[in-house]
């Protein structure tokens, strides 16, 4: 399993390095396009339109690099200020938005050095890997078919077929070294890009304010939707049953003197209806705050969820105390939603969840060995999960390469309210 994971990581880093090298070749044309748009921007219509197109291309290129960083396990947030409405604010305001956004100039500053670093590191990754592949298979084949005598590794030039075939073990060593070094070089490339493309402290503050504004609105909308759901469930469920109970008891009161048997039958129906109403109320309460969560905390509630899944699920948890009730409830329902995604979409044979609290941050990871390719943009419930966490300033990251494994990592800054005794 470890060898397979190492091989998958190395191959993915090599492919990403090749892709990053190809994209880096676009940096210079993109830079020239943006400079042309900036120079021609004072011209009406043509200049502003060209600058708009150039800015879109630059940010498209920078966002591609951020996506490659996320694939390498180093997420890079987008630092751009929200754009003004060009139709309402006018061309001058829109132009000022582009020029005064520090992220625009940081993108521009990255294009040329980023291209040099990506091409250099990418060529190293490709050269080592290709040279290893040549030693593993191509050199002996060429020597046998074409009598082309040239050297490899320690033997240069090769003097006979014996030395030629010694390229095989050397090629294996070089290939292993290439697959081992490739993730490190990709990480170096992404870290260099992050120096330019990640938000500055001021941009982080602006993003933080925008994030809190958005999450506050989402929390209000979610609360209103939850209240409407509770009202609907009460109206259609327990309230309707209690009205039926009252009507049945009223009929029984009228019949109790002249037809006691019918009155008893109606009272039995009223009792059955009241029992059903009680069940509805219990289900409604369980949907608001499950009793198992109140009694056993997040660990016990997640273990109960895992036992109810059709997929064998391992729970690894260490929480030295209880969380605040709102955080506990939000994380519980987020884990439940992640479990639902595992059952519906992953085709997994097994799953796992880890829960821990360090440095004032609750970290929960839900993983499975399914088919992978989980994408929040495809409507698999991950957006809803993220909205739950946003209300508590939490974050969610998804790692789901083709073939798996899929790992959904959730982090929520919070404190433990009471230690376990």
TrEMBL record:
Its EC number is 2.7.13.3. One of its GO terms (molecular function) is phosphorelay sensor kinase activity. Keywords: ATP-binding, Kinase, Membrane, Nucleotide-binding, Phosphoprotein, Transferase, Transmembrane, Transmembrane helix, Two-component regulatory system. Residues 20-197 form the Putative sensor domain. This is histidine kinase. Residues 226-293 form the Signal transduction histidine kinase subgroup 3 dimerisation and phosphoacceptor domain. It comes from Paractinoplanes toevensis. GO terms for cellular component: membrane.
